[in-house]
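the two lines:
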Amino acid sequence: MQQLLFIVILLISLSCKAQELFSATEPASNMAAGSIGFRLDNSIMNDVNSSRTNYHLIPEILIGVSKKLMIQGNLFFSNRNKTFSAEGGSLYAKYRFLSRDAVQKHFRMAAFGRVSYNNSDIHQEEINMYGHNSGYEAGIVATQLLKKVALSSSLTFLNATDNGNNNKFPYGSNNQAINYTFSVGKLMYPKEYKSYKQTNINLMVEFLSQVNTGSGKYYMDIAPSIQMIFNSQSRIDIGYRSELSSSLLRTAPNGFFIRLEHNLFNAIR
Amino acid sequence: MKKIFLIISIAISMVTNAQVTKVSLQASGLTCSMCSNAIHKALKTLDFVDKVDADIKTYTFEISFKTNSKVDFNMIKRKVEGAGFTVSGFKATVLFNNVQIENGRPINIEDMTFYFVNTADQPLNGAKEVKVIDKGFVSPKEYKRNAVPDSGPHTYHATL
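prediction for all of em together
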Protein backbone atom coordinates (compact mmCIF):
# COMPACT_ATOMS: atom_id res chain seq x y z
CA MET A 1 0.00 0.00 0.00
CA GLN A 2 2.84 2.36 0.82
CA GLN A 3 4.37 1.58 -2.54
CA LEU A 4 1.13 2.50 -4.25
CA LEU A 5 0.92 5.79 -2.43
CA PHE A 6 4.47 6.42 -3.49
CA ILE A 7 3.58 5.76 -7.13
CA VAL A 8 0.63 8.14 -6.93
CA ILE A 9 2.66 10.90 -5.28
CA LEU A 10 5.43 10.38 -7.82
CA LEU A 11 2.95 10.72 -10.67
CA ILE A 12 1.44 13.87 -9.22
CA SER A 13 4.84 15.45 -8.66
CA LEU A 14 6.15 14.76 -12.16
CA SER A 15 5.94 17.86 -14.28
CA CYS A 16 3.80 18.16 -17.40
CA LYS A 17 0.21 18.44 -18.43
CA ALA A 18 -2.73 16.31 -17.48
CA GLN A 19 -5.41 14.37 -19.17
CA GLU A 20 -8.71 13.23 -17.87
CA LEU A 21 -9.52 10.74 -20.58
CA PHE A 22 -9.26 7.90 -18.13
CA SER A 23 -8.96 4.29 -19.19
CA ALA A 24 -11.01 2.49 -16.55
CA THR A 25 -13.52 5.21 -15.64
CA GLU A 26 -15.27 8.10 -17.39
CA PRO A 27 -14.60 11.75 -16.52
CA ALA A 28 -17.32 14.35 -15.84
CA SER A 29 -16.58 16.00 -19.19
CA ASN A 30 -18.36 14.89 -22.32
CA MET A 31 -17.24 14.70 -25.91
CA ALA A 32 -18.01 17.67 -28.18
CA ALA A 33 -21.59 18.11 -29.34
CA GLY A 34 -22.14 16.59 -32.76
CA SER A 35 -19.10 14.33 -32.66
CA ILE A 36 -19.00 10.55 -32.89
CA GLY A 37 -16.42 8.27 -31.32
CA PHE A 38 -15.61 4.64 -32.06
CA ARG A 39 -14.05 2.50 -29.39
CA LEU A 40 -12.74 -1.03 -29.16
CA ASP A 41 -12.12 -2.27 -25.63
CA ASN A 42 -10.12 -5.45 -25.16
CA SER A 43 -9.61 -7.17 -21.79
CA ILE A 44 -7.28 -10.11 -21.48
CA MET A 45 -7.89 -11.43 -17.98
CA ASN A 46 -6.32 -14.42 -16.22
CA ASP A 47 -8.91 -16.91 -14.97
CA VAL A 48 -8.03 -17.77 -11.36
CA ASN A 49 -9.63 -21.23 -11.53
CA SER A 50 -7.79 -22.46 -14.60
CA SER A 51 -4.91 -21.66 -16.88
CA ARG A 52 -7.21 -20.13 -19.48
CA THR A 53 -7.46 -16.49 -20.46
CA ASN A 54 -10.77 -14.67 -20.59
CA TYR A 55 -10.89 -12.36 -23.55
CA HIS A 56 -13.60 -9.68 -23.62
CA LEU A 57 -14.13 -7.52 -26.69
CA ILE A 58 -16.42 -4.51 -26.43
CA PRO A 59 -16.98 -2.38 -29.55
CA GLU A 60 -18.62 0.90 -28.66
CA ILE A 61 -20.05 3.97 -30.33
CA LEU A 62 -20.11 7.34 -28.53
CA ILE A 63 -22.27 10.28 -29.55
CA GLY A 64 -22.06 13.87 -28.32
CA VAL A 65 -25.76 14.79 -28.35
CA SER A 66 -25.36 18.30 -26.92
CA LYS A 67 -22.80 20.18 -24.89
CA LYS A 68 -24.18 18.55 -21.73
CA LEU A 69 -25.34 15.12 -22.87
CA MET A 70 -23.57 12.18 -24.43
CA ILE A 71 -24.72 8.63 -25.05
CA GLN A 72 -22.79 5.43 -25.62
CA GLY A 73 -23.88 2.06 -26.89
CA ASN A 74 -21.83 -1.10 -26.96
CA LEU A 75 -21.84 -4.84 -27.55
CA PHE A 76 -20.27 -7.49 -25.36
CA PHE A 77 -18.28 -10.38 -26.81
CA SER A 78 -16.19 -12.91 -24.92
CA ASN A 79 -14.72 -16.39 -25.06
CA ARG A 80 -15.96 -17.35 -21.59
CA ASN A 81 -18.50 -19.83 -22.97
CA LYS A 82 -15.84 -21.92 -24.72
CA THR A 83 -16.32 -20.26 -28.10
CA PHE A 84 -15.99 -16.55 -28.78
CA SER A 85 -19.53 -15.19 -28.95
CA ALA A 86 -21.80 -12.21 -28.47
CA GLU A 87 -23.22 -11.99 -24.95
CA GLY A 88 -25.19 -8.74 -24.85
CA GLY A 89 -24.75 -5.00 -24.76
CA SER A 90 -25.40 -1.82 -22.83
CA LEU A 91 -26.63 1.73 -23.25
CA TYR A 92 -24.97 4.50 -21.28
CA ALA A 93 -25.80 8.20 -20.90
CA LYS A 94 -23.95 10.97 -19.07
CA TYR A 95 -25.26 14.43 -18.28
CA ARG A 96 -22.86 17.17 -17.19
CA PHE A 97 -24.75 19.34 -14.70
CA LEU A 98 -21.95 21.47 -13.30
CA SER A 99 -19.07 23.17 -15.08
CA ARG A 100 -16.71 25.72 -13.61
CA ASP A 101 -14.11 26.61 -16.21
CA ALA A 102 -11.04 28.79 -15.96
CA VAL A 103 -7.94 28.92 -18.14
CA GLN A 104 -6.30 25.48 -17.92
CA LYS A 105 -8.63 24.50 -15.11
CA HIS A 106 -12.06 23.10 -14.56
CA PHE A 107 -14.26 21.48 -11.98
CA ARG A 108 -17.12 19.49 -13.43
CA MET A 109 -19.76 17.11 -12.21
CA ALA A 110 -21.94 14.72 -14.16
CA ALA A 111 -24.64 12.13 -13.52
CA PHE A 112 -24.65 8.92 -15.51
CA GLY A 113 -26.60 5.72 -15.93
CA ARG A 114 -26.27 2.43 -17.75
CA VAL A 115 -28.68 -0.35 -18.64
CA SER A 116 -27.03 -3.67 -19.45
CA TYR A 117 -28.08 -6.97 -20.89
CA ASN A 118 -25.97 -10.11 -20.73
CA ASN A 119 -26.87 -13.70 -21.58
CA SER A 120 -23.83 -15.48 -20.12
CA ASP A 121 -23.75 -17.48 -16.88
CA ILE A 122 -23.06 -15.55 -13.68
CA HIS A 123 -19.86 -16.92 -12.22
CA GLN A 124 -18.76 -14.37 -9.63
CA GLU A 125 -20.05 -12.28 -6.72
CA GLU A 126 -18.54 -9.12 -8.19
CA ILE A 127 -21.20 -7.15 -10.07
CA ASN A 128 -20.07 -5.72 -13.38
CA MET A 129 -22.37 -3.98 -15.86
CA TYR A 130 -19.64 -3.80 -18.48
CA GLY A 131 -19.72 -7.29 -19.91
CA HIS A 132 -20.85 -9.59 -17.09
CA ASN A 133 -24.25 -8.83 -15.52
CA SER A 134 -27.66 -7.73 -16.69
CA GLY A 135 -29.09 -4.82 -14.72
CA TYR A 136 -28.52 -1.13 -14.30
CA GLU A 137 -26.15 1.30 -12.66
CA ALA A 138 -26.39 5.00 -11.87
CA GLY A 139 -23.93 7.39 -10.34
CA ILE A 140 -22.19 10.72 -10.18
CA VAL A 141 -18.66 11.73 -11.09
CA ALA A 142 -16.61 14.80 -10.22
CA THR A 143 -13.48 15.78 -12.14
CA GLN A 144 -10.94 18.46 -11.33
CA LEU A 145 -8.49 19.56 -13.98
CA LEU A 146 -5.57 21.56 -12.61
CA LYS A 147 -3.23 22.55 -15.41
CA LYS A 148 -1.23 19.37 -15.73
CA VAL A 149 -3.08 17.02 -13.43
CA ALA A 150 -6.57 15.59 -13.67
CA LEU A 151 -8.26 14.05 -10.64
CA SER A 152 -11.57 12.27 -10.83
CA SER A 153 -13.78 10.41 -8.43
CA SER A 154 -17.05 8.57 -8.94
CA LEU A 155 -19.74 6.85 -6.91
CA THR A 156 -22.06 4.34 -8.60
CA PHE A 157 -25.00 2.29 -7.43
CA LEU A 158 -25.38 -1.06 -9.21
CA ASN A 159 -28.37 -3.37 -9.33
CA ALA A 160 -27.93 -6.77 -10.97
CA THR A 161 -30.83 -8.84 -12.24
CA ASP A 162 -30.93 -12.35 -13.68
CA ASN A 163 -28.95 -12.70 -16.88
CA GLY A 164 -30.55 -13.80 -20.12
CA ASN A 165 -30.70 -17.42 -21.33
CA ASN A 166 -32.17 -18.46 -17.97
CA ASN A 167 -28.92 -17.65 -16.18
CA LYS A 168 -30.23 -16.73 -12.72
CA PHE A 169 -28.42 -14.40 -10.35
CA PRO A 170 -27.14 -17.00 -7.88
CA TYR A 171 -26.33 -14.90 -4.81
CA GLY A 172 -29.88 -14.12 -3.62
CA SER A 173 -30.39 -10.62 -2.34
CA ASN A 174 -26.72 -9.70 -2.66
CA ASN A 175 -27.44 -8.21 -6.08
CA GLN A 176 -26.71 -4.58 -5.22
CA ALA A 177 -23.38 -2.88 -4.81
CA ILE A 178 -21.67 0.48 -4.70
CA ASN A 179 -18.60 1.24 -6.79
CA TYR A 180 -16.27 4.04 -5.83
CA THR A 181 -13.29 5.10 -7.86
CA PHE A 182 -10.43 7.55 -7.72
CA SER A 183 -8.36 8.37 -10.78
CA VAL A 184 -5.34 10.53 -11.40
CA GLY A 185 -3.89 11.32 -14.80
CA LYS A 186 -0.94 13.28 -16.05
CA LEU A 187 0.25 14.26 -19.50
CA MET A 188 3.96 13.47 -19.82
CA TYR A 189 4.59 14.50 -23.42
CA PRO A 190 4.75 16.96 -25.13
CA LYS A 191 6.32 19.36 -22.68
CA GLU A 192 4.95 22.19 -24.75
CA TYR A 193 2.15 22.10 -27.30
CA LYS A 194 3.08 23.21 -30.79
CA SER A 195 0.70 21.40 -33.10
CA TYR A 196 -2.26 19.03 -33.20
CA LYS A 197 0.01 16.47 -34.84
CA GLN A 198 2.11 15.96 -31.74
CA THR A 199 1.60 12.63 -30.04
CA ASN A 200 0.47 13.04 -26.44
CA ILE A 201 1.54 10.54 -23.80
CA ASN A 202 -0.40 10.30 -20.56
CA LEU A 203 0.11 8.21 -17.48
CA MET A 204 -2.76 7.25 -15.24
CA VAL A 205 -3.42 5.40 -12.05
CA GLU A 206 -6.95 4.44 -11.09
CA PHE A 207 -8.33 2.83 -7.96
CA LEU A 208 -11.48 0.83 -8.54
CA SER A 209 -13.49 -0.49 -5.63
CA GLN A 210 -16.78 -2.19 -4.97
CA VAL A 211 -18.69 -3.02 -1.83
CA ASN A 212 -21.75 -5.27 -1.93
CA THR A 213 -24.52 -3.61 0.05
CA GLY A 214 -26.02 -7.00 1.01
CA SER A 215 -23.01 -9.07 2.00
CA GLY A 216 -20.63 -6.25 2.85
CA LYS A 217 -17.95 -8.01 0.80
CA TYR A 218 -15.65 -5.79 -1.24
CA TYR A 219 -12.79 -5.57 -3.67
CA MET A 220 -10.19 -2.92 -4.35
CA ASP A 221 -8.15 -2.84 -7.58
CA ILE A 222 -5.44 -0.67 -8.98
CA ALA A 223 -5.24 0.01 -12.71
CA PRO A 224 -2.18 1.87 -13.99
CA SER A 225 -2.19 2.71 -17.69
CA ILE A 226 -0.35 4.53 -20.40
CA GLN A 227 -2.23 6.43 -23.09
CA MET A 228 -1.11 7.76 -26.42
CA ILE A 229 -3.14 10.30 -28.41
CA PHE A 230 -2.40 10.70 -32.11
CA ASN A 231 -3.33 13.69 -34.27
CA SER A 232 -5.48 15.00 -31.40
CA GLN A 233 -8.09 12.57 -32.65
CA SER A 234 -7.20 8.91 -31.93
CA ARG A 235 -6.00 7.17 -28.83
CA ILE A 236 -4.59 3.91 -27.53
CA ASP A 237 -4.68 3.02 -23.83
CA ILE A 238 -2.73 0.08 -22.50
CA GLY A 239 -3.16 -0.84 -18.85
CA TYR A 240 -3.04 -3.56 -16.30
CA ARG A 241 -5.73 -4.13 -13.72
CA SER A 242 -4.64 -5.80 -10.51
CA GLU A 243 -6.52 -6.81 -7.39
CA LEU A 244 -5.16 -5.25 -4.22
CA SER A 245 -7.57 -6.77 -1.78
CA SER A 246 -10.88 -8.61 -2.00
CA SER A 247 -13.39 -10.64 -0.04
CA LEU A 248 -15.68 -11.15 -3.05
CA LEU A 249 -15.62 -14.23 -5.24
CA ARG A 250 -14.09 -13.13 -8.55
CA THR A 251 -13.06 -15.30 -11.48
CA ALA A 252 -10.58 -13.08 -13.34
CA PRO A 253 -9.63 -9.88 -11.52
CA ASN A 254 -6.16 -9.47 -13.02
CA GLY A 255 -5.19 -8.76 -16.58
CA PHE A 256 -4.37 -6.38 -19.38
CA PHE A 257 -6.74 -4.01 -21.08
CA ILE A 258 -6.28 -2.20 -24.37
CA ARG A 259 -8.56 0.53 -25.65
CA LEU A 260 -8.52 1.88 -29.20
CA GLU A 261 -10.54 5.00 -29.92
CA HIS A 262 -11.09 7.29 -32.86
CA ASN A 263 -13.13 10.49 -32.80
CA LEU A 264 -14.90 12.20 -35.68
CA PHE A 265 -15.60 15.83 -34.79
CA ASN A 266 -18.74 17.49 -36.19
CA ALA A 267 -19.89 14.21 -37.69
CA ILE A 268 -23.54 15.04 -37.04
CA ARG A 269 -25.33 18.05 -38.61
CA MET B 1 -33.68 68.52 -53.84
CA LYS B 2 -34.67 67.76 -50.26
CA LYS B 3 -35.70 64.29 -51.40
CA ILE B 4 -32.30 63.68 -52.95
CA PHE B 5 -30.60 64.70 -49.70
CA LEU B 6 -32.87 62.37 -47.80
CA ILE B 7 -32.08 59.48 -50.13
CA ILE B 8 -28.37 60.20 -49.92
CA SER B 9 -28.41 60.41 -46.15
CA ILE B 10 -30.36 57.13 -45.90
CA ALA B 11 -27.91 55.51 -48.27
CA ILE B 12 -24.95 56.74 -46.23
CA SER B 13 -26.47 55.52 -43.01
CA MET B 14 -26.96 52.06 -44.52
CA VAL B 15 -23.37 51.74 -45.67
CA THR B 16 -21.36 49.63 -43.23
CA ASN B 17 -18.98 51.96 -41.48
CA ALA B 18 -17.72 49.36 -39.03
CA GLN B 19 -16.61 45.93 -40.15
CA VAL B 20 -15.22 42.97 -38.20
CA THR B 21 -11.97 41.78 -39.75
CA LYS B 22 -10.97 39.12 -37.21
CA VAL B 23 -11.69 37.72 -33.77
CA SER B 24 -9.26 36.42 -31.18
CA LEU B 25 -10.83 34.31 -28.46
CA GLN B 26 -9.44 32.49 -25.50
CA ALA B 27 -11.07 29.25 -24.38
CA SER B 28 -11.01 27.97 -20.83
CA GLY B 29 -11.56 24.62 -19.17
CA LEU B 30 -9.02 22.63 -21.15
CA THR B 31 -5.39 21.65 -21.37
CA CYS B 32 -5.29 18.77 -23.83
CA SER B 33 -4.74 19.15 -27.56
CA MET B 34 -7.69 16.86 -28.34
CA CYS B 35 -9.98 19.35 -26.53
CA SER B 36 -8.40 22.24 -28.41
CA ASN B 37 -8.87 20.33 -31.66
CA ALA B 38 -12.58 19.86 -30.86
CA ILE B 39 -12.98 23.65 -30.55
CA HIS B 40 -10.91 24.26 -33.68
CA LYS B 41 -13.02 21.89 -35.76
CA ALA B 42 -16.30 23.24 -34.31
CA LEU B 43 -15.37 26.85 -35.19
CA LYS B 44 -14.55 25.82 -38.74
CA THR B 45 -18.13 24.61 -39.30
CA LEU B 46 -19.49 28.20 -39.13
CA ASP B 47 -20.36 29.33 -42.64
CA PHE B 48 -19.01 32.88 -42.14
CA VAL B 49 -15.64 31.64 -40.86
CA ASP B 50 -12.81 31.56 -43.37
CA LYS B 51 -9.83 30.42 -41.30
CA VAL B 52 -9.08 29.41 -37.70
CA ASP B 53 -5.53 29.57 -36.37
CA ALA B 54 -5.13 27.87 -33.02
CA ASP B 55 -2.38 28.55 -30.53
CA ILE B 56 -2.62 25.36 -28.47
CA LYS B 57 -0.18 26.67 -25.87
CA THR B 58 -2.23 29.74 -24.95
CA TYR B 59 -5.70 28.29 -25.81
CA THR B 60 -6.36 31.16 -28.19
CA PHE B 61 -8.05 30.95 -31.58
CA GLU B 62 -7.58 33.60 -34.26
CA ILE B 63 -10.62 33.60 -36.51
CA SER B 64 -10.80 35.34 -39.89
CA PHE B 65 -13.99 35.69 -41.90
CA LYS B 66 -15.18 35.29 -45.44
CA THR B 67 -15.70 38.54 -47.34
CA ASN B 68 -19.26 39.87 -47.40
CA SER B 69 -20.35 37.43 -44.72
CA LYS B 70 -22.34 38.37 -41.63
CA VAL B 71 -20.29 37.64 -38.52
CA ASP B 72 -22.29 36.43 -35.50
CA PHE B 73 -20.41 36.56 -32.18
CA ASN B 74 -23.03 34.48 -30.34
CA MET B 75 -22.68 31.65 -32.86
CA ILE B 76 -18.93 31.65 -32.25
CA LYS B 77 -19.46 31.47 -28.48
CA ARG B 78 -21.99 28.66 -28.90
CA LYS B 79 -19.52 26.58 -30.92
CA VAL B 80 -16.93 26.76 -28.12
CA GLU B 81 -19.58 25.79 -25.57
CA GLY B 82 -20.79 22.97 -27.80
CA ALA B 83 -17.29 21.54 -27.82
CA GLY B 84 -17.59 21.42 -24.01
CA PHE B 85 -15.67 24.55 -23.02
CA THR B 86 -16.08 28.24 -22.16
CA VAL B 87 -14.97 31.51 -23.73
CA SER B 88 -12.92 33.54 -21.27
CA GLY B 89 -11.74 36.31 -23.57
CA PHE B 90 -13.14 37.69 -26.85
CA LYS B 91 -11.47 40.47 -28.82
CA ALA B 92 -12.69 41.57 -32.23
CA THR B 93 -10.65 43.69 -34.60
CA VAL B 94 -13.08 46.15 -36.16
CA LEU B 95 -12.37 48.48 -39.06
CA PHE B 96 -14.12 51.78 -38.26
CA ASN B 97 -14.86 54.57 -40.70
CA ASN B 98 -15.45 57.70 -38.65
CA VAL B 99 -17.79 56.27 -36.04
CA GLN B 100 -18.52 58.40 -33.00
CA ILE B 101 -18.90 56.40 -29.81
CA GLU B 102 -20.78 57.79 -26.87
CA ASN B 103 -21.76 56.33 -23.57
CA GLY B 104 -25.22 54.74 -23.87
CA ARG B 105 -25.53 55.24 -27.63
CA PRO B 106 -25.88 52.09 -29.76
CA ILE B 107 -23.36 51.51 -32.55
CA ASN B 108 -23.99 49.12 -35.42
CA ILE B 109 -21.19 46.80 -36.39
CA GLU B 110 -22.43 44.69 -39.28
CA ASP B 111 -25.73 43.14 -38.06
CA MET B 112 -24.81 43.53 -34.40
CA THR B 113 -25.55 46.37 -32.00
CA PHE B 114 -22.90 47.50 -29.54
CA TYR B 115 -22.95 49.61 -26.39
CA PHE B 116 -19.56 50.86 -25.28
CA VAL B 117 -19.02 50.73 -21.52
CA ASN B 118 -16.41 52.58 -19.45
CA THR B 119 -15.01 54.11 -22.62
CA ALA B 120 -14.38 57.80 -23.26
CA ASP B 121 -16.55 59.39 -25.97
CA GLN B 122 -14.45 59.56 -29.12
CA PRO B 123 -14.49 59.18 -32.90
CA LEU B 124 -13.11 55.86 -34.15
CA ASN B 125 -11.13 55.47 -37.33
CA GLY B 126 -9.14 52.55 -38.65
CA ALA B 127 -8.63 49.15 -37.06
CA LYS B 128 -9.48 48.99 -33.35
CA GLU B 129 -9.63 46.09 -30.94
CA VAL B 130 -13.05 45.78 -29.32
CA LYS B 131 -13.42 43.58 -26.27
CA VAL B 132 -16.82 41.97 -25.70
CA ILE B 133 -17.73 41.87 -22.00
CA ASP B 134 -21.12 40.14 -22.02
CA LYS B 135 -21.91 36.93 -20.13
CA GLY B 136 -20.09 33.98 -21.67
CA PHE B 137 -17.51 36.20 -23.42
CA VAL B 138 -15.39 36.89 -20.34
CA SER B 139 -14.63 34.93 -17.19
CA PRO B 140 -17.52 34.81 -14.66
CA LYS B 141 -15.43 36.97 -12.34
CA GLU B 142 -14.94 39.67 -14.94
CA TYR B 143 -18.59 39.52 -15.93
CA LYS B 144 -19.61 40.14 -12.33
CA ARG B 145 -17.23 43.07 -12.08
CA ASN B 146 -18.69 44.79 -15.16
CA ALA B 147 -22.30 43.77 -14.42
CA VAL B 148 -23.65 44.61 -17.88
CA PRO B 149 -27.32 43.76 -18.49
CA ASP B 150 -28.30 40.76 -20.61
CA SER B 151 -29.64 42.40 -23.76
CA GLY B 152 -30.63 39.80 -26.33
CA PRO B 153 -28.93 37.78 -29.03
CA HIS B 154 -27.54 40.50 -31.32
CA THR B 155 -26.75 43.21 -28.79
CA TYR B 156 -23.39 43.35 -27.07
CA HIS B 157 -21.47 45.40 -24.54
CA ALA B 158 -17.87 46.22 -25.22
CA THR B 159 -14.82 48.20 -24.22
CA LEU B 160 -11.86 49.33 -26.24
